[in-house]
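Hi C.,

You asked whether I'd gotten around to modeling the 273-residue construct. I have! Everything is below, sequence then structure, no commentary in between.
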Amino acid sequence: MFEFDYLRPASLSEAVALLSKQKNARALAGGMSLLSAMKLRLADHDCLVDLGRIDALQGIRLLGRTLTIGAMARHAQVAASADVRLTIPALAALAADIGDRQVRNRGTMGGSLANNDPAACYPAAVLGLDAVVTTDRRRIAAHDFFEGLFQTALEADELIASVEFPLPQGAAYVKFHQPASRFALVGVFVSILADGSVRVAVTGAGPGVFRAGELEAALAAEFSPAAAARVVVSAEGLNSDMHGNAAYRAHLIPVLAARAVAQMDDGAGLDKN
């Protein structure tokens, strides 16, 4: 690992100022991806700005029909939150299935979203639930936030403060694990939003999270596992690697979507508030 300065600001404004002023600085949330990359010398930063002491980035709050989760909320906290489990149980289940126990107790929602790994789980929930990412300076709709492989709409010194999830009528997330990392080889998040519209967000299959329009149309016409299973997804543009080629991932997308719909038909993933 290369040498670097380590700073621990106590406020969001101080953290933003440090990121703006320090040479080659990077925000440190849970550090699950960043520190590993630095240890392997795949990333070289002169300064790490630790966000762990900033109270404004903590907490999970339910206000009306909106669930707001602070950027520094740990995966384990999201999984265990009574408010999350009551209102969006699919999100709690997603968080409970990330990585291993050590990762869940250190990794954060904000860090995962800012990193935007193409196989991460949270991006599917954010896009699938039509969430809004709130930063230190603006609000960014989910469809504008994710821009491609490890790329987001965030500016260099911009920090995620929280994520606002409008409560859906129901949702479910099913992923096919990459067995070593427990990232999603393919993950599919299906939701029925408050207005009755259907969303299907897919992670792990392509260079970034995306909505599966053909599945959304099929499920809008007939919300059933059979309707999802009948959809044929094109393999064009999907990932191919040692764990599975593009055709395999294309096959998995409607299979997992059908399983997610079946969970919702069984009552799992439904808002009980």
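If it helps when you're writing up: The chain is about 35% helix and 25% strand.

Thanks,
B.
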